[in-house]
Queue: 2 jobs
Job 1
Amino acid sequence: MPTDVERWKDEVYGNEIRDHLMEFAEEGWDSIPEDEEDAWFERFKWWGLYHQRAGQESYFMMRIGTPNGVIEPGQLRVVGEIAKEYATGPVENPEFGEAYCDWTTRQSIQLHWIKLEDVPEIFEKLEDNGLSTQQACGDSWRNIVGCPVAGKDKQELVDAWPIARDLHDTFKGDEDHTNLPRKWKVSVTGCTEGCGQGDINDLALEPARKEIDGETVTGFNVRVGGGLSRKEPRLARDIDVFVRPDNADEVAGGLSALFREHGDRENRYNARIKFLVDEWGVEKIRRVLQEDFVDFDLHTAGEDLRDEYTYNTGSQDGHNDHVGVHEQADGNYYVGLNVLVGRMGAEDTLELADLAAEYGSGEVRLTQRQNIIVTDVPEENLDALLDEPLLEDYSPDPSPFMRGSIACTGTEFCSLSIVETKNRQVRYARWLKDNVELPADHEEFHIHLSGCTASCAQPQIADVSLRGMKTRKDGDPVEAFDIGLGGGLGEDPRFADWIEMRVAADEVPGAIANLIADFETEREAGETFREFVEARDEDELGELLDPEETDYEDPYMHNTKKTWYPYADDDNMDDSPAPTDGQGEPLPADD
Amino acid sequence: MLVRGDAYTNEAPEGPPMTTAVRILDDGAWISVDDERVVSVSELWQLADHDVCGCETADFLIEGFVDVDAAGPAVLVRAAGQCVTCGESAVSGWLPVGRIVGPDRRFASLATGHVRTPRA
């Protein structure tokens, strides 16, 4: 039996949602019939609008999809202006101020506290500048990710940016692919370092070479069915297909259509293609793709470059991320700036837009580690850019703990999260920076903090994985984390092993400090942290992870989900001003 | 037995049948009753006479709702979660979350501290 979501999608979905959205926006929040709210909020996701959690009714998160994280010259200013004008909530965030942009792990942009009534103006401004929220959420093609310096990188087999752009242009708004059983996450990578994180996507195109008719052709091998959500992480599986760049849209579209026809529409928990790959196996996926969804003979897989991958491998060699100053293939430079937990104030965003225009081409790019890259900086401009005061806060040479921190949205806005995340991770990173020394040969150390099992912060592929939990401390329920160790990507990707469960949030920094101290003293010469973890069993690692209170103080130990906003002075649900009208004034209660 | 996302038709004492729409939203984050988000994940529920773990009273963290149903005035859910005392993960049996009450058919939620027993 189809779910309600499928029924709602059958009635209205895809591009046509926009007309209704605009009508509701024109008439105001109150115009959405109460008995249709669930249906419309589900549909609005397709246009990038996600209703915020309880206590924040009438406010939306807005996601802007920027394929491959490319923000073209002029667009960052537009995003900053929109954030400043429209993304201001009733109460300031104590770490980030009153308006800010989130750079996400899928190279997208998220704004919060968006009012429905402002959507038409925001859409107009975005679209006038080549930006869109279309399909940023919902059951269809999501933002396409890849190596953020595609087309500029010196370590590149194929320039994947034109292919990602083409897939974006082809499948955004394509009626044949607008209503899939579930989200469809695609990664396209041409670099030799594995920056596209293809292994954790529904569909991954990864660089490869193939001898065809006596000629060596560069293109992509195809993997299908990766993903981290729930407690069912999967690595994308090799379906033994090589695709030329000019056939990429046919194969990607064929797989999307296969998913559309054969994905599970009766159980949303079983809907992602990773479960279809589990059920069918890769041979059947390939066979059905060939027989029913493409009209040319598929090539078998080519020679991949996975043994060259360095990204997020913990190897401390090559690129583990894109922070720092790096030469581009054209002789210019890109400067990767660390944005702690991916959140940048609106004023800082506007300032960075000016710096990118002054010192580079005006283009910036978002990474899958929630950071931002200023591209196309001529060598003669580097020193001046690096001397800019803004780069003291968004450093190209940060502490490993600042550099390696990723956090999802958390209970500040998200319905699913169990714990507060971003502000807490900021406090963790600062405490670790001030109190813990990594071995001198470790410049990178990844700590990913996710508020729940949805895994938006990709916790399973970090050195230290934190997943939101609860526990009791002195009898009282407090926010907590499961702690995992040893995850990462590369030639042999590995999900973290969950070692210590239900650690009270205020004991996590102490646990990490104790672990790193033991790593320093017990490691073999030259052994990386990932190797150190791999060499030990769970019991040994559990001994090393010794949670304890320190002078770290955590202001979010209480149940932040029970507040209307965790940082409000009066944070009880009853103190919420929501829902509000288009001017942000509280609307009268229904009864 | 109704499955997730279906509307439940609840017989009123007089007049035509009244419909209570119960569904799970946002990837299992919410229970919606008549298009109002009424129960959220992340709460700790005390479970007695249950089968999620060996604890006499489970201290069960609700991580995601799996099924929702209405049985008469009672709204019941099955939830994926974990007992934070022993660490056992499980999908619970049918647990009460509240009732439809009064002539205006308002949803009254059980208090968080209420000890819940799965329905057969």
Note: The longest strand of chain A covers residues 203-212.
Job 2
Amino acid sequence: MAAVRTTGEVLRHRLAVVSLVVILFVMLAPILWITATAFKPRNLATTVPPTVFFTPEVSPFVKLMVKRSQLREKPTEEQLAAAPWWERLVLEGGEKVVRSGKGAVQPSGYPSRFLNSLIVATVSTVLAVSMGTITAYGFSRFKVKGEDDWLFFILSTRMLPPVVVAIPMFLMYRAVGLNDTHLGLIILYTAFNLSFSVWLMKGFIDEIPKEYEDAALVDGYTRMQAFFKIVLPEAATGIAATAVFCFITAWNEYAFALIMTNKRAQTAPPFIPSQIGSGLPDWTVIAAGTVLFLLPVAIFTFLLRNHLLRGMSFGAIRK
Amino acid sequence: MAEIELRGISKSFGTVPALRDINLTIADGQFFVLLGETGAGKTTTLRLIAGLDRPTEGRILIDGQDVTDWGAADRDTALVLQQYSLYPRYTVRQNLEFPLKSPMRRVPPDQIAERIARVSKTLRIGHLLDRKTDRLSGGEMQRVSIGRAIVRTPKVFLMDEPLSALDAKLRESLRAELKDLQMTLGETFLFVTHDQVEAMSMGDRIGVLNKGTLVQVGTPQEIYSNPVNTFVARAVGSPAMNLLPGRIEGGRAQLGPGLALDHAGGAEGRALIFGIRPEDVELATGAPLPATVTDVENHGVEKIVTLMAGPHRLRATVPVTVRVAAQDQVRIGWQPARVTLFDEATGRSLRRA
């Protein structure tokens, strides 16, 4: 049954809703802006005042995916008629799609960068979370000599702003040939996320009563079997929360990706702004690249939302 | 079916000693209760026998076999805990199956089903089999954890205060059920509790632990009527034994100026503590000791009367038919044979000295 509210409470409730809407709008405005720009025709992208109403186009996304070059003259009617719908969008923009000698469409730099981002972020997240979980389990369940010192040491790796070590890291990477490799970035991001993962997971595992494992040990299971059968399912919430945080960090990382990679293993964050540099920037294409870049984190977070609701409260697991 | 033997067991956590030189034999098929306060070392003893911890010193034998260095999985014991004893996220059936599906046991599926059917019938949990464990009441949970213990027919049952999280009524009925079960199974039970009523009503034998030391082992009757020291005297019995400081002079128990009771000589002149059970305190008009009633609790079958005799507070249980009220002046006495004498300095019973 709904509780009876006084006038003051009703007013306060409405005020809260209104302020939430305002805050939400302020927070989402940049995302709205960039999403709108990604669907604008090129000539409306940078108008002052900004265009709010327009017919959305998908041409920025087509342009984002293929390699293009400037046309010297306007495309002919025959060219337009012969082209498939997506190529027509490029031609109408005064550009042509670059093809190989055999006629295959050349992709732009974006798809491979996007794929690199996915590989690096996913693998480093899996590594950081799994290593972090096992380490945290060890610290949580066993007497470790100098436990507090170890944990502080692990945390201390986060105390230095990472950019400070960028140049020495770059030189080291060049010396061992890890420059511009997926493995190089994966190692970097795993190391960067590991301390965070250990600390977060320790909090979650400390919350799981030890008695469950004791019972499993007495019931004829080894420590490892008890870990996988009992502890891991109980820690799922924590693992999901930790994974989301690690994934976001790795996915958004810019400075090291910029310094350590340039082509083969380059991720999307340094690639997207690099397109601004060459000639007159096509803001709609950059916006399209940004919008696509936002999706994986959003999807990942959405998929894990049921775990996150409980996990984000940091260890407040049902007793 | 197993006999458990602890030989010179000591255990310390870091520099903190938890158990000191425990020597104990629990006979096959016995219901043994370990009684002690929180922190006395009951759970530690249990965990050592289960193999979850290693003793600092001493050996543990099950059926004459030295299992000190065996892991928990190899010892074939079953453990029932106060709480967190069921695996979460599993149904009752999965919980019961869990020990049978252990890689080191590999019970065939048809046998698993048969054993679960039998256990759930014994414990009347058949209707709960497909329920998740977080949808069970406290009593149902403990019944299922007992089920998980008996389903694999272990050598030894270890129970760590399995009833103390339950409400009084349920505790009482499960107590009887558990005792019945033990008699039917005829297995060795080691039951840990801080509740002396549980200990007295269930145990074939009781071991009283105090600060890591095993103070007394015996049948409930022995422990009740002949406590080895004042600690045991206080720990067992409700209300507890009255402990009155005094001395014996001229064949009389002197509890203070003008407070003398009959006593049969011996131990003249030294500081003593007189121990008398509440039911052995007699209220009678001709009795030697004057006292004032300060409180009367009516418990239905009997009354518990709190008295002040000089500086001493003591309690007596009398039949409900005795008419007595607060502020009454009464006279009390005792049968000298019912008195246990303790040395005041050591607290030890003189009967044992």
Note: The two ends of chain A are 27 Å apart (CA to CA).
